[in-house]
Amino acid sequence: MRKLIFTGEKLFGKTYSGLEYEYRGLLRIYTRNGNREKVALYVGKLNEWKFLRELRSRLNLERDAKYDSVRPLNEVLDEFFSLKWLHTEIEPLEVHKEASLEIAVE
Question: What are the tens digits of pLDDT across the range 11-27?
């Protein structure tokens, strides 16, 4: 199960929702076995996970609030055209004279 947690963290990050189930499952096992060190470890990990999820949720709400308001068109266009990917050089496609476009009419 620890490999599953490690994989989940690496693939999806420390706020991955599936980690809650894994941490709770391990807590149940270690509580039944009386392994206090592991219980303390996974209680800490579960609390950290909850804290990070709450923090991420708050940050997302702040971001969404920023963009939920109606903004002037010129402001939106200025932001769009300032994006870095728009300013990269793109090589033109080669167009062959022999290429044709077929349109199917039903």
Answer: 677 888 888 988 899 99
Beta-carbon count within 10 A of 43 CB: 14
Among candidates 61, 2, 68, which has minimal Cα distance to 30? 2
- Token pair 């947690």 is found at 5
Q: Is residue 9 over pLDDT 80?
A: no
Decide if 44 contacts 14 (C-beta within 8 A). Answer: no
d(CA 30, CA 24): 10
- Residues with Cβ within 8 Å of 12's Cβ and at least 6 positions away in sequence, in order, are 18
Mean pLDDT of the chain: 77
Residue whose pair of structure tokens reads 């920023």 in the numeric block: 66
The identity of residue 97, as a single letter, is K
Distance CA 71, CA 78 (A): 11
pLDDT greater at residue 13 or residue 49: 49
